[in-house]
């Protein structure tokens, strides 16, 4: 018996990964960035150097970095969206590995069966 993983075992793993994708929450691709901002009021503490913490999400679009302000009341939710996107990327990475492995096993088995018939 071979120690290599069978195609049916790989297909089971693939189904498990697809179930994980279905269980994901809303996601958002990008990076969270914290920037210190000055509000413009001359009596504010930020005018003396203590800047206001402001969050943005950045992402690449057509080779350009895009930036979008995140309101304070949405920060927790947006952080979860970005974390969920990272989970999705990890699942996609694993799915690609499984799919390549299935393809390699299929080709190997088909070659073996062809040689066996000769």
Q: How is the secondary structure organized here?
A:
Layout: H1 7-22, E1 31-37, E2 52-61, E3 64-70, H2 75-117
Helix pairs in contact: 1-2
Describe the structure in your own words.
The protein has a three-stranded antiparallel beta sheet, with helices on one face. β2 (52-61) and β3 form a beta hairpin. Helices cover 50% and strands 20% of the residues. The longest helix has 43 residues, at 75-117. The protein has one domain. α1 packs antiparallel against α2 (75-117). It is built from two helices and three strands; from the N terminus they run αβββα. It has 118 residues and is of the alpha+beta class.
Question: Which structural traits does this protein have?
Answer:
50% helix, 2 helices, alpha+beta, 3 strands, three-stranded antiparallel beta sheet, 118 residues
Mean pLDDT: 90
How helix-rich are the residues, as a percent range? 40-55%
Spans of at least 5 consecutive residues with low confidence: none
The amount of beta strand, in percent, is 15-25%
Q: Quick one: biggest sheet?
A: 3 strands, antiparallel
Termini gap: 23 Å
Query: What is the tally of beta strands?
Result: 3
Overall structural class, as computed from helix and strand content, comes to alpha+beta
Overall radius of gyration:
24 Å
Number of helices: 2
**Element pattern in H and E:** HEEEH
- Give the strand line-up of the largest sheet: 1-2-3
Shape: rod-shaped
Number of domains: 1
Quick structural gist:
The chain is α+β, with helices and mostly antiparallel strands.
């Amino acid at each position: 018996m071979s120690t290599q993983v069978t195609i049916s075992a790989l297909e089971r793993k693939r189904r498990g990964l697809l179930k994980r994708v279905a269980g994901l929450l809303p996601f958002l691709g990008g990076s969270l960035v914290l920037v210190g901002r000055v509000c413009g009021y001359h009596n504010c503490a930020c005018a003396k150097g203590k800047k206001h913490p402001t969050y943005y999400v950045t992402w690449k679009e057509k080779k350009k970095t895009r930036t979008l302000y995140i309101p304070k009341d949405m920060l927790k939710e947006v952080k979860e969206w970005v974390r969920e996107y990272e989970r999705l990327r990890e699942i996609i990475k694993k799915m690609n590995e499984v799919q390549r492995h299935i393809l390699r096993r299929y080709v190997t088995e088909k070659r073996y069966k062809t040689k066996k018939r000769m």
